[in-house]
Write a structure and sequence with these properties.
22% strand, alpha+beta, five-stranded antiparallel sheet, six-stranded mixed sheet, Creatine Amidinohydrolase, 390 residues, Creatine Amidinohydrolase, Chain A, domain 1, 2 domains
Amino acid sequence: MEISKGPQAFPRPEYLRRVAAVKAEMTRRGVDALVVNNSRNVTYLTGCTARTGITPQAVVVSMGNEEPTFIMRGLDAPAAIHQSFLDRGRVIGYPEHFIGNPEKDGFDPVIEFLHELGVANRSLGLELGDLSAQTAEKFKRRMPKAKIVDCSKAVAWIRTIKSDLEIEVMREAAAIADAGIMRAAEVIRPGVREADAMAEILATLARGANGKPGTDLANAFFCSSPRTGTCHIRWSEDIIREGSQINIELGGVRHGYVAAIMRTFSVGIASDRLRRVHEAEVAGLESALNVVRPGATCSDVANAFYRTIEKHGVKKHTRCGYAIGVDWTEPTASLQDGDMTELKPNMTFHLMLGNWIEEDFGYALSETFRVTGSGAEALTLSPRKLFELT
């Protein structure tokens, strides 16, 4: 029985545009075939958001084929058939005897496919930064005549500039993130368990916003007093108490694309210290967004923030954010002093202004924004306020 495809996140021409961009980069690097195993890049090139856990999977892009070929564990192949734009014949599931086998693994079928493709003695691109040393050695041993080219961030840099269709999906994800923050403002109250409050927030992220459900749950952090001096802590078994502060970071997800947001909540009237930090950070955020434009650099954005908060007597010792898109972070541009990456239209960033000042005191504020032709478009739209829940 032929498996029917489900609805795709983007139309087929959008994926073919991405593949064509990758092939252009392959030509520039002199690569005949590219093996893509980074999960974010797999989603970008195919639309498939299902994960195979620890079992290898790879998308092979070759200059001779319009579509890539997706190779994965046999039991995961139906997910690719349902979710990806690929023709059925371009999805290959390898048999189960490659699982838990000390002699072979899922990269062996990938190498066998490359031999069948006729590129075993040509130039082969690998994402070496995402492969173990043992796997990289396997490619070299089984393809001794191939010229191995490191293409670790080749696809990631292409992903950095979004199409208009991707931007629209990012807006949908941002609306979901906003809904999560506003739900947090409703459910964080004295006497409520942190776990129960977070359950309501996560349910909102799943239900979505504006008729668009969330299609996954990204990392969510709930840092409550006295743990606000750190950033990546989950909710606890504690009961929310009067006088507590809570810093939340979460993301809305649509078809693998994430828009992130951070906000600070005070259960009761905020302290003067927290108010001062909040006012400095909001001023810094606005200064940072005001310098965003094509031709400016990531360093320009970060330093605009640093200069502004220092005028208010506050310092931040960590970076101000990073490129964001498929599965949250994109390992390319970073909003920090010295990163001279030039901003271009339809780049998207998480302007992440969390500031962890002491072990037991910190503050959280962020926006996901898009670089436009003349400035910045904030995709997340929750009020830039210190939420005082009384």
